[in-house]
Write a structure and sequence with these properties.
By secondary structure, the chain is α+β, with helices and mostly antiparallel strands. The chain is built from eleven helices and twelve strands. The chain folds into two domains: 99 residues, Hypothetical Oxidoreductase Yiak, Chain: A, domain 1, CATH 1.10.1530; 186 residues, Malate/L-lactate/L-sulpholactate dehydrogenase, NADPH binding domain (Ribosomal Protein S8, Chain: A, domain 1, 2-Layer Sandwich), CATH 3.30.1370.60. The chain has a seven-stranded mixed beta sheet, sandwiched between helices. It has a three-stranded antiparallel beta sheet with strand order 9-8-10. Helix 1 packs antiparallel against helix 2 and helix 4 runs parallel beside helix 5.
Amino acid sequence: MIPAGTESPMRKLSAAELGRIGTALFDAAGSPHEESEIVSDVLVRASLAGHDSHGIMRFTQYVQQIRNGEIRPGAPFEIERETRAIAIINGHQGWGPVIARKAMLLAIEKARHCSVGTVVIRGSQHIGRVGEYPIMAAAEQMIGLAFVNSYGGGAAVAPWGGIDGRLAPNPIAFAAPSGEGWPVLVDITTSVIPEGKVRVAFYQAAQLPEGCVIDAEGNPTTDPAAFYGPPLGALLPLGGPVGHKGTALSIMAELLGGALSAAGCSGQPMDTTGNGVFFQAINIADFIPVDAFIERVQQLRAWVKSSRKRPGIMEILFPGEPEYRTSRRRQEEGIPVDDGVWAEIVKTAQDLGVYVIE
């Protein structure tokens, strides 16, 4: 059972300070310093963008996974098979964010030579916020795609019409250059919400929106504690009344991220847990001049945002805008850290002999 949070006002810390704390925690847990910096940066960037479920709240989780042997810092990044256009990576249960960054860089390099580069990963621990990696392709004037599953566990999502968890939230992400200083970015789970957002609500003693989770008997609930049980409830698939679409997308992520990589799919007995990953980079310039592509993106953005707004809607946002605005605001104001998350960070720091301001 996850310890309950409080409703007291949140403290705010700078990205730089949180990055220092994360790096220090991972160093103290036995991670090589360069890898600690990468992982901390990925988590802080997620919190900056407003994806708190995949941000700094994972500091303590990752430390615990190092302690129990799930994460193997410093593990080799092995290319098991490679052609000019594809590669199969075995991360040997190393740091997920470290493996994923290297893999997307490899996909980008292959796309420069072959128009499209595809890299799949097995043997990787949790890679963090999935949208982090397609953004790397967009920064190189390419389109980035990611499909990720969780093998060996994490079956917290009920299939459409089911009660029992059979699939993971299996995220999908897409990024492309926009010409606006921020990328077009789609970064979604194939469940209505990811488990991490249920955890955030639990820490904050908050209720969930309706239609996100069910309890162990299949009854709709807004109480995050009812999800965690015991017995465990389930997340609902993306799509609400048309949740079969979310289940279908999740199965697509299972096949691309889990089956194609040979990492494994949900429900298959495994000795370890982790993420199976499919990355693809598409070199826009080999299809159409980049300027022409961006012009079409901007035309589409203007067209979409020109729609009349429904009552209560202040503005129609294009994918990537919410993260960009949140990131700018949090860079200026600091990243909010709720008391439950902060208490765990402080306790972990004390256990490791790391100093943090309480």
